[in-house]
Design a protein that fits this description.
Residues 111-290 form the PARG catalytic Macro domain. Helix content is 32%, strand content 14%. With 350 residues, it is α/β, with parallel strands linked by helices.
Length: 350
């Protein structure tokens, strides 16, 4: 394909999957190529009254939507607080998985922890795995300019050909889906992928203005940027003229790997954003031993919030604690909590 007409890190072909280098993880690439050739086989096997080519565009559209939060809505958005917190459910798996049960089906949506230059690659990140197993999603890397701060990308209707297990260099093919019986809930036409990029905080100077280390997530402007990004994704049904909201949103560690985000701050931002968007349930899916400790911690935090505040807690108060903490740190009026003590700090502040 020709080069993009905009500055981007996205690819115009599948070369990353065929090149040899330290960044390429063989298990993930094997899964992507299996998905691609399974898709080709499905096209060849398609018949006039059945198969992939049987469906018309009207019957099974694949939709890419770029959604931008209007600037004039930002202030009213931040003023209008939700009445109650969404239910937050923690799902812990023995390993990370792209199984059908964790893709947002049948009537929810799934967060794709995207790079601002969205698409596929060869390193087994969550975004790459979700796109790599779904050949109909590949055009996203060709069609989408880098995401802006108030912008998300929505992809609906793509079918996953395979599932994967693991992450990064441990990602590998798990199961070939196409052609096998699937649950009645797995109508791929309803699959919604929410591409939302977190701030690249690994590039931010985390030096505290008054000495010591800071928590970059709490720096001025960053909390609101991430909140607007998540809310725009979680409420995207409104901008797509779909009256029915997502019944749940599946998510996980958003911007907490290579981007250097704080797991606890990002969890609270997503929880509050889901509440603002009136999403009934936020499903936090975590996998592997390395994420189990945080999953247990998040469960305890959600339980503590429910136990100590009951129904009287205004969701806005959770977010306001983070905003005040960030402001006080910047002004030298508060010490910086340890990164793994954010939940405890918030509970004490409530």
């Amino acid at each position: 394909m020709p080069a993009h007409p905009w500055q981007t890190e996205s690819f115009t072909n599948l070369a990353p999957w065929y090149s040899v280098g330290e960044a390429m993880h063989q298990g993930a690439v094997q899964a992507y190529l299996t998905a691609l050739f399974t898709y080709f086989q499905a096209i060849v096997a398609s018949e006039q009254d059945s198969g992939i080519l049987h469906h018309s565009v009207e019957d099974w559209p694949i939709i890419f939507s770029s959604i931008v939060m209007p600037e004039d809505q930002l202030h009213s958005l931040l003023r209008n607080a939700p009445a109650s917190l969404s239910h937050l459910a923690v799902v812990q798996l023995p390993h990370q998985s792209t199984d059908i049960a964790y893709l947002g089906l049948p009537d929810g949506a799934c967060v794709i922890s995207a790079n601002k230059c969205v698409g596929f690659g060869a390193t087994g990140t969550q975004e790459e795995l979700q796109v790599g197993i779904s050949p109909e999603a590949y055009p996203v890397t060709l069609l989408a300019p880098p995401l802006k701060d108030r912008q998300v990308l929505i992809c609906q209707g793509v079918e996953a050909m395979v599932t994967t297990k693991g992450h990064g260099r441990w990602a590998s093919l798990d199961e070939i889906l196409h052609g096998r019986p699937r649950p009645s809930s797995a109508d791929w036409r309803n699959r919604v992928m929410l591409f939302m990029d977190a701030l690249e905080l690994d590039l931010v100077d985390s030096t505290h203005p008054h000495g010591g280390e800071n928590i970059p997530d709490l720096m001025p402007g960053y909390l609101h940027r991430e909140l607007v990004k998540a809310y725009t994704a979680f409420s995207s049904h409104c901008y797509r003229n779909i009256q029915k909201r997502y019944s749940f949103v599946t998510t996980g560690l958003w911007g907490c790997g290579a981007f250097g985000g704080n797991k606890r701050v990002k969890a609270m931002i997503q929880w509050y954003a889901a509440s603002m968007a009136n999403v009934p349930e936020l499903r936090y899916v975590l996998g592997g031993a390395e994420q189990k400790e945080f999953g247990d911690e998040l469960k305890r935090f959600v339980g503590w919030v429910a136990e100590h505040t009951g129904r009287e807690l205004e969701p806005r108060k959770l977010f306001d604690v983070l905003v005040r903490l960030g402001t006080d740190i910047q002004n030298g009026e508060s010490a910086v909590p340890k990164p793994d003590e954010i939940f405890e700090y918030v509970l004490k502040s409530l």
